[in-house]
Protein 1
Amino acid sequence: MYRNVKYIIDKYGNHPAFYRYKTKTGSSLPMFYVYDSYITGPEHWASLLTTSGSRSIRNSPYDALFIALLVEDKHKYDILQSGFNGIYTYFATNGFTYGSSYENWAKIKLFCDHFQLLFIPSVGPGYIDTSIRPWNTQNTRNRINGKYYETALNLALQAHPSVISITSFNEWHEGTQIERAVPKRTSKRVYLDYRPHKPGLYLELTRKWSEKYSKERATYALERQQPVS
């Protein structure tokens, strides 16, 4: 992990498109989302992510914001012990995990606020992965012509999150893409499109809710003296 972070920052860190998040202290740090972070024990993460760790990355040129995946409720305290800077929920299926269940976002946000962690709920336009996992029909979530996406975005905003992540831009095989889509069929697959709506429906919805989030976030960030970028 250390080698990967070092490589990424050394190679791309000065590029104008390299994302950095402005912290409360005024620092602009890279942000790394760590998928399946719970598989590695907190004592191993702590060696890298805490200031007293044996291979600490903190207060070095490679310091960054590391965001852990929250799957089960019990993972919260492992994430805290590990030295992560925040929590994200990743999955686009409401109800699939504790973290991806909308009804739990307010509680997760309270936990993050208490321990000064970033809370990053993940929203998606729907979910269908039966082309690669035919047995997984119970986790299919219909897009309902954009209503599923807007419901998720609305509930994410209500939690006053630090950031909102989107799952995903172009993960077609799990049916979570929001990029422009036109009808397409191959011998093995029919690709989902957004008819009767325009090909750019989900990009338009993303812009609409991004603008709403930016305005609301600026308001509550000002109230709590939090950064707005």
Protein 2
Amino acid sequence: MDWSALPPELLHLISTKFSSFSDLIHFRAVCNTWRASATSVLPTQIPYFLLEPDPGDTTLQFYSLTSCKTHTVTVPSCHDQTVLDLSNGFLLVQHLENPDLSLLNPVTNSKVSLPFLQIKRPQLVWSSPDPTRTDGYTVCLFGNARLPNKLSAFWRCGELEWSTINNGSPRSCYYGEMYLVLSTVSKNLEIFDVATKTLRDVVPPPPGEGPFSPPGALVYIVASAGHVLRVLEHDDRYQPVDQCHFDIHRLEFGADKKKPSWVKVSNIGDQVLFLNIVNGFSISPSCFEGVRGNSIYFMKAEGILFDHLSCYNLARYDIGTGIAEELPFPSVTGGAWFLPSLHYF
């Protein structure tokens, strides 16, 4: 039977039934007819975890929460690139032999070049689901956290150079033309207006929290369902998962010239937070079976390997009950959550 001769309407219908983006990639790779007939709209996907690839590796591995399996995807464009970071379905990659930066969609293998930026191994704070838009900034980068001079950079499609702010933090967030930077020392939240490059407000940490209190705590700044959340993880790499817990505060922007402040919340509604090692994002689980709202998926540090790298496993925290549990997951030393898309540049 000539499988390429199947009716395009039937092929298109089949392509809309895949629950895994890797299955859709394999479907599209069969032949030109199947690729042309496949859906251009990827069904809503639960986030996958991208295991950290080696520089120049064209075989990327994505762990699925639904199947508890690792899916392999071949991305030819990675042959001369190193993956630095990712956000909203796009990888920030840098050429192995020069400082050229690009955004790469590993699902469609399409790529857009970014302007030159004098930052070594930058971190991708945020990328728009559609970086080709021109009505606002679509890419936000932060300079290497090990360098003493902090620099953050912003870009919108069509611009030939970056807009920069002389500040930044690995634990930062881009939200509504504002750049929210968590100070690594004071734990203050500094709010910058990206358009004017000015400091708009400084929000102190909630009562009882400060530079060294509570000890061992990790803080994440996450945009969630139209709000900004301050998520504090009480963790110690030597304590068991079931002893981990979180405090969550929502940023209230003051009305009538009042200063912004933190308000403690006991639930986040139907949202689910996915936390990487230093940042995270939020989704609604309404389309996914087995994913509970009002919960946090986070990377639990389990110890330090011989080469000084931390080892992480996956855990889920139920905000309503305050219970944390470990989930099936390959032990990793790096990587990040990934939201697949079929966007082409």
